[in-house]
Specification:
9 helices, four-stranded antiparallel beta sheet, five-stranded mixed beta sheet, alpha+beta, about 260 residues
Amino acid sequence: MRFSAKHGAALIVLAASLTVAALSAQAQGLTQLRVGADPSYRPISFVDPSGKLIGFDADFAAALGQHMGVPVSYEGMAWDGIIPALQGGKIDAITNLVISDERKKVVAFSQPIMTQTIVAVVRADSQHPQATAADLPGLKVGVMVNTAAATALQGMKGVTPAMYNTVVDAYNDLMLGRIDVVAVESVNGTYIAASQYAGKLKVVPKPLTDDVKLNGVALRRQDTDGLAQVNAAIDKMKSDGTLAAIATKWFGNTLNVPH
């Protein structure tokens, strides 16, 4: 079939109209919240015996959607592909991601919803119960890819960690003696050591770095109105006690909630 100049002009107009419509819809903010998460990162998000994703982040995302007045869908996916999934439009948000200058180049962040540090987790019978950053070059260190802990290790000279796709795999190798230390975010490390490996693993009291990491909701950079919606909803969740209640449920306190 041949297209005339008239048909070509019509197609250009149609394409322009669709683009304007898409931009207009985007400018109206988010009408749904499709959230992606790591399905094996306790207590942030993990699968319960029935196959349902639960955890701090699952509860936070549900409450965020309620405060925004939009429906929420929550799904697990490979962490190393989660930002590309957001950029590609497969999901609308990552509701618990460490804020960093590097990530700000590719995603937009909400105000902080959580604070945490980077800690070392060791076996209870470890020969290095007080392992510090200075000790790591002489130890076998494990860390999950694309995490704040992995980024922290990159800045430590002489440290070449074993990289794991899930933090569960890192803990398993720690228990088996294949590595000496797992570097991880404090929220996960303290929870896992106390609830999953009580008496077998412990968190070194002194953090590996002095940095306090802030977590926020990540959106596509062009979702400016959506970001405004999310920030307004977080303000409400902080003021009405919703965020504090979720933190208390999963962490036992509100120490990780920024004010």
